[in-house]
Amino acid sequence: MRFLDALRASAIAAAGLLLASAFCAAGPAAASDTSAKDERPAAPAVVTLPGAAPASDAPSSAPKRPGDEKAGAPPADAGAVDIALVLPLGAPDYARAAEAVRDGFLAAAGIAKATGRCRVIPHGDEGVLGAFEAAKLSGARVVVGPLVRDDLRALAASTEPLPLTLALNQLDDASALPPQVYTLSLSVESDAPTLARRMRDAGVSTVALIGNESPISKRFAAAFGAEWLLAGGGPIESIPFDTRPERLTALRNALSKSTADAALLALDAQDAAVARSFVLRIPAYAISLINQPHAPSVLRDLESVRFVDVPWLVTPSDRALAGIPRREAGNLLLDRLYALGFDAFAVASAFVKGVPERLDIAGATGRLTLADGRQVAREGVLAVFRRGQVVPADAAR
Length: 397
Hints:
Strand order of the largest sheet: 8-7-9-10-11-15-16
CATH superfamily of the largest domain: Response regulator
Structural class: alpha/beta
Distance between the termini: 29 Å
Number of domains: 2
Radius of gyration: 21 Å
CATH architecture of the largest domain: 3-Layer(aba) Sandwich
Largest sheet: 7 strands, mixed
Order of helices and strands: HEEHEHEHEEHEHEHEHEHEHHEEEEE
Number of helices: 11
Number of strands: 16
Helix content: 25-40%
Strand content: 15-25%
CATH class of the largest domain: Alpha Beta
């Protein structure tokens, strides 16, 4: 799913979002505790991994979890492995997030009757390279992971040859990843293309982007700026946000003079609600960090604010998501990560016989396609706060 910057400030022990944006974070994160039970059925028999058909077309069945092996050589009777899932299940700060991804991945594998061709390889802090070595020894054709941004940095810096890899994060700088590494991320900046396109479709030509000095805000602002230019948008007016009274006065003055068609709030939920109270005469858009439980007073401030989020949360009754087992974690960040794990299996399945020329999957985190830079682009759903509820913007009246 402040996906790990956000895992740190949100509540995975009181943690922050990213994977959005978050796992995206370099610092540790934890997930708020849930009452969900962790039941593990016995590992299923080996079956042939199906092709890359959309997961929604597969028959429904209960998710199964093969035993989480310790990093190292696979057991002699492990059988053929098509996909290895490498996750920090042994890292205290990331274990809850990793469990959510694992559960989503294995739910998808269970639907496809392919759990016997998958292997979960856990690792602890600083153990990602050993886990990848174990994945190679297993003969996996595709490795899914790492989940944490620092682990992805370690993998990128390694000189060891890598198998075809689907990383569940992305780097926060211009560093190049090895050529065999593709990315599928829940980072907030990955929603920038969808937001830019939808804002242009709504007739917005100039934007007042309200942000602060947080890493997430800066990353999103940079990503949106690039996409906005590609979408044919006009100048972006950057307005700093700060909760100090004198800075809020400056914000009010700047907005009173602004000629922007819309405001974009590159802020977390609480700050976005404050900033929104100063933005009343023009439409307001925001990043997905605003979608979390709120007090009624905050919801009133966020009324009519639009943002992009995953279909798993915005359109749960959509036909493409029918039959997918639900994991009620009571935590929206963990719910996003469960959806990420589900989609990671679908993409990895499409990669088993090599990188496909074309990818088009109606996933739980959005429509997934191959984009430049070895990225799996993710087009989420435009949502809006309406009378205290999150509803699809296209259906809101």
